[in-house]
């Protein structure tokens, strides 16, 4: 019976390695060693999209990457975990540093939609920006990181926070919109 359990675990590990290998070849412009991409992670990308990750990156189940026109680029540093059901949507550039932990159900978006009065919203073009997340950042479950935002090194973003402005290094920010409440010591 112990042999059957070990054999089952080995097959499960092999299956995960095969899934990662396929997705690595199919979707990534560059991937460092020890990449793990879970089976239900989904990628929708234009042909010229750039998706680069460092070493020891994990992309959890049901994460969704959408890299769409005009020039989408996503860079993820080493030792970073993209949590379950994350949505990362890039039209321009999203950079996520090293040693970043991103909780479940987080959205990171580098663009928005036009809201002028003189043209119906559905006919307006996207406003395109960027998102920059530094090293050693923790983003709590359910947070939203919106366009033209830089999150500094060592920052912590509280669960369900909506980040609409820059967050300084080592700040702890919470709320909607996210505000700095203290600093890491």
Overall mean pLDDT stands at 94
End-to-end distance: 50 Å
Low-confidence runs of at least 5 consecutive residues: none
Number of helices: 1
The succession of helices and strands, N to C, reads HEEEEEEEEEEEEEEEEEEEEEE
Task: Explain the overall architecture.
With 185 residues, the chain is mostly beta strands. An 8-stranded mixed β-sheet has the order 2-5-8-11-16-19-21-22. Strands 1-4-7-10-15-18 form a 6-stranded parallel β-sheet, with no helix packed on it. The protein contains 1 helix and 22 strands.
In short:
With 185 residues, the chain is mainly β.
Name the features.
185 residues, mainly beta
List the helices and strands and how they pair.
Elements: H1 2-27, E1 30-31, E2 36-37, E3 42-45, E4 50-53, E5 58-59, E6 64-67, E7 73-76, E8 81-82, E9 87-90, E10 93-96, E11 101-102, E12 107-109, E13 111-113, E14 126-128, E15 130-133, E16 138-139, E17 144-145, E18 149-151, E19 156-157, E20 162-163, E21 171-174, E22 179-183
Parallel strand pairs: 1-4, 2-5, 3-6, 4-7, 5-8, 6-9, 7-10, 8-11, 9-12, 10-15, 11-16, 12-17, 15-18, 16-19, 17-20, 19-21
Antiparallel strand pairs: 13-14, 21-22
